[in-house]
C-alpha cells in the first residue's frame, strides 16, 4: 500500500515539475493579488473570528485579537513586494 502511494506521489511530483519547467505556473502579480485578498478577508472577518473563538473556546476577545487575528496581517505583508 505504501509503495503504491509512493509511486503515485512520484508521478504527481513529476507532473508538477513538468508544468513548472514549461512555464505553466502563476506569476508573481497573481500571487501578490492572492495575498492582498487574504489580508482583506482577514480584516473584514477579524471581529467574526474573535467572536467565534469566544463562543467555541471561551477565549476572551482581546486575547483572540492579539494572538489569532492581529498577527495575520504582518505575516502576509512581509511577503508582499514593496511598491
Automatic annotation (TrEMBL):
Record-linked InterPro entries: Ald_DH/histidinol_DH, Ald_DH_N, Aldehyde_DH_NAD(P)
GO CC field: cytoplasm
Listed GO biological process terms: aldehyde metabolic process
Source organism superkingdom: Eukaryota
Keywords: Oxidoreductase
Claim: Oxidoreductase is one of the keywords in the record: yes
One function term, GO molecular function aspect: aldehyde dehydrogenase (NAD+) activity
Keyword Oxidoreductase: yes
Protein name listed in UniProt: Aldehyde dehydrogenase domain-containing protein
Organism: Oryza barthii
